[in-house]
Amino acid sequence: MSSTVQELYQALIVERSKAPRFAGRPEVFDAQGRGENAMCGDRVQVFWQRGGVVHHEAHGCAILTASADLMAQAVAGKSPAEVAAMRGAFEEVVTSGREDLALGDLNALAGVAQYRARRRCATLPWAALEEALREVQVHG
Amino acid sequence: MVDRKMSTRAFNVSEIRKDFPILTQQVHGRKLVFLDSAASAQKPRVVIDAMVRVMEMQYANVHRGLHWMSERASDAYEAARDKVAAFLNARAREEIVFTRNATESINLVAYSYGRTALRPGDAVVVSEMEHHANLVPWQILRDAHGVELRIAKITDSGEIDWESLEAQFADGKVKLLAMTHMSNVLGSYTPAERLVAFAHARGAKVLLDGCQAIVHRAVDVQALDVDFYVFSGHKLYGPTGIGVLYAKREILEAMPPFLTGGEMIESVSYERATWAPPPYRFEAGTPAIIETIGLGAAIDYVQAIGLDAIAAHERELTGHGLKMLAGIEGLRVLGSAQDRGGVLTFTMEDAHAHDIATLLDRQGIAVRAGRHCAEPLMGRMGVSAAARASFALYTTVEEIDALGEGLARIKQIFK
Known about the structure:
The structure holds two protein chains of two kinds.
Chain A: H1 3-8, H2 11-18, E1 31-37, E2 42-49, E3 53-59, H3 62-74, H4 80-96, H5 119-139
Helix pairs in contact in A: 2-3, 3-5, 4-5
Chain B: H1 2-6, H2 13-17, E1 26-27, E2 30-31, E3 33-34, H3 45-57, H4 68-88, E4 96-99, H5 102-113, E5 123-127, H6 136-145, E6 148-152, H7 162-169, E7 174-180, H8 192-201, E8 205-209, H9 213-216, H10 221-224, E9 228-232, E10 243-247, H11 249-254, E11 265-268, E12 273-275, H12 289-305, H13 307-326, E13 331-333, E14 343-348, H14 353-361, E15 365-366, E16 368-370, H15 375-380, E17 386-390, H16 397-414
Parallel strand pairs in B: 3-15, 5-6, 5-7, 7-8, 8-9
Antiparallel strand pairs in B: 1-2, 4-10, 9-10, 11-12, 13-14, 14-17, 16-17
Helix pairs in contact in B: 3-12, 4-12, 13-16
C-alpha cells in the first residue's frame, strides 16, 4: 500500500481508534456538545469539566475516534480561550497538511488534508467541544 | 454496433472494457478498479460520441424551430423516446416522459398523480428498503395532502415480508404501492410481477423504482402490468441529467402538469393556459436534449450486448463476490435475498466503512461508504454506515479479487 495511506492511518491513529484513552461519559461534567455528520451517520459527544478535562463518546470511523481522543489529550488543563486557539491551529493542519510543532500528537492527523471528504471526520470533535464551551460561557 | 447486435458472440468483458475510455485511468498510481457503478456508471465511447456529435453537427432547440437544424435535433430527441419505449416494451411512445432523473420522476408522480388521483385518507405503501427518493416525496404528499404513508416490512434477508404487506392492505385504503425493483443497498430484487398482481387485486396502482434493476435485467412494463416505472439514465451507462417516467397512457392523460412553462402547453392567453397532451405536458422548458440523445445511445449499447448476457455476467460476479466476502472473518454482508444482483453492502468488525473506503481508494479501488441514501434501512439492518461494492457489465472477476486483497490489507492495519 502506498506510503500516504500509512501516513494517514499511522499507528497512533489506529491505536487510539481501537483503544481510546478518554472515551466514556463521566459521571459529572460541566458542559457537553454534540457533533453529527448527517451525510455518513458519524456522531460524537464531548464532555467538558472545569479545569480542562475532556471525555468523548465517538461513534464513527477511526479518524473521528482518534481525533476525539487526541483532542481530549491535547486540551487537558487548557482554558476555553486556549482551546479555541488550538482548534484554529488544528484546522489549519488538516487543511494544509503542514504540521504544527506546537500541536504535538495532533499532527498525526495531518494526512487528512489529502482527503477532502474526510476532514470533517477529524474536525467534528472540535466542533462538538466548541459547542460545549459556548454552554460554559453562557452559563458561566 | 450492428455487428454486435447481429452476432451471437460470447460476452467478452475485456472487449467491452475497451468501450469505456475511463477504465484505463489510474488513481493514486494504481489501475482504477471502479466498484461504484450503482451510484453512477461509467460511459461507453458510443454515448460520449453521440453527445459530441449532436453538439458538433445537429444541435438546436427542439420542437420549436422551423429550420433544418431544429428538425434534425427534434428527430434525434424523439428517436430516443422511441428507444426508451421499445426498451421498456411500452405500448406507446406517449407513455415515456423525460425527466431529470428518477428522483424527479417520483416527485412528478407524487405531486401530480398524488394530489389528484389520491384523496385524503387514502394510503400509500412503500417498503423498508427504499432509497430516500422513494420515501421523502411520499412524506411530503402525506403532510400536504392528508394521505397516509405506510411502511411495509422486509425480512432480515432483505426480501418483502408478505404478511406485513397483506396487513398494510387489509383495510382497503391503499391506493398506491411504491416500491423499489432492486434495493440499492441489499441488492434484492423485488418480485415485481407478483407485487403488481397483489396490489391490483386490492385496487391499488403500482410504481416501481427501477434505478438499479433496469441496469441488470430486461424490464417489460406490459408483462409486469406496472402503472409507473422510473429510472435514471446515468446508472444505465448514459449521461447525468436525464431520467425516465413510464406511466400507462390513460393515467398520464388524467394527470395535471408538474412543472409548467414553455413546451408543455397547448395554448396560452394572459388569463389561462391549456395543457399539451402527454408526454409533452410533463416536459416543461427546454429539455436535456443532448443527454436524452446520449441516453438513446446507451440503450442501443446495452441492447446490442443484450440484457440476458449482462445479467449472466453479473450473476457470475455476484456469486464470486459473495464467496470472496464470506471468506473474510468479521465481515458481514447486508441482506441475503435469494434473488439478488451485483450490489454488495458490507461492514467489517475492525474498520469503519469510511476507513474502508479511504484505504481502498489508496489502492485504486472505488467503493461507496455511508448510508447510501437509505438512512432508515441502515437503521433497520442495525448499522450506522456500510461500504458498498457494486458491479457493472465491465466489472471483472479480477477486480473483485483485488477488492478481497484490499480488504485483507485493511484488516492487517486494524488488527
